[in-house]
Amino acid sequence: MKIVFNDPAFSFQLLRTIGSSYYGGADIGECLSTAYRIREGEFESWYSEWIKTAERVRKVADDCLSSGHEISAHQAYLRASSYYRTAEFFLHENPDDQRIIETWQYSVDCFLKAAKYFSSNSFEAIEIPYEGTTIPAYFYKTPLSSTSPRPTLVAHTGFDGTQEELYSQCVVAALQRGYNCLTFEGPGQGRVIRKQGIPFRYDWERVVTPVIDYAIARDEVDAKNLALMGISLGGYLAGRAVAYEKRISACILNDGVFDVLNSFTRGFPKPFTDIIEQDIRSKSEVVDTAIEVSMELVTGARWAYTHGMWVFGATSPFELLRKTMDYTLKDIINRIECQTLVLEAERDESFPGQPQLVYNTLTCPKSHIVFREEEGAEDHCHVGALSLANQRIFDWLDGL
Questions:
Q1: Is CATH 1.20.1440.110 the classification given to domain 8-114?
Q2: Is the pTM of this model over 0.90?
Q3: Any idea which residues carry the catalytic annotation?
Q4: What is 122-259+327-398's CATH topology?
């Protein structure tokens, strides 16, 4: 689905932000007017125009709040949070760029201001102990939990998202249906990479287990009805987690990811993949040079490799690809026992064909939903059709 831009990376990220409008995370006109000012394929232009919109909408929120219009302020802060996140997205070529921290922090601050006016005082920002430090999480309590423990959705993002974005992506839909929701950021994500400097780890169960420990200790949570959803790269991470963490009763892979290395190397000639897989360091420069050429030609490649090196703690494209080799369900997928829903986008450019492979290989009770172009839901993680995606996800959960 192309919107405004011919560049696929810019078009998708615009769709991603517009998609959040269904749950209040954006306004379509604000998004389109911003996009039309951006120069195609230019990361600096992307940042400068989105930051203008974010700051303008934040000022609207500040003015509304000072005038006592709390609902208007809440809504504007929520949109500003989304626009700051969008502005920061393509800055990661240089992880030392101070604008990354500054813009991300504005996104978080605006979200927390919006959260003060969430209905029923259902929101808590918390810190979950994790290996000598903490990871950030938000707990959203459905009003129904005041009478009895409720089913709870634990959700995390993937390669590049933040937990603030999850509010519009799945939290509102969960609360509407009587589910508590617990979101968190782990290594490689959100604050944990930006401020704590902790990169991704493949053994994601080590991250999820303390989150589950926290969840089941809460009186509002029905410990026998815990679902875990991982989004994008989270489709691998969540699958890995439930292979080992048996207190989770259901898992949603949105979308299914079988092998992360394959998402980077599909289409590579065999001599290149041999160099990577056999770890032939003497020829690593050949791989790095070829990837650097593709980065100059393709916006999406430039972003994916520079962002990937940062969040995986790699110093070169070759090292990044070597690190992703551990991110596979190949030898552990038969350990997954819980009910598992595998989602698939018909025209996914990130992990094409992988959800079907995940579904075919699973031996647990399983379901598979393909989102189609005719539904407007064919893009990665169905960002243009969040209402439809949540309807299918939560109808599946309700039926368990």
A1: yes
A2: yes
A3: 232
A4: Rossmann fold (3.40.50)
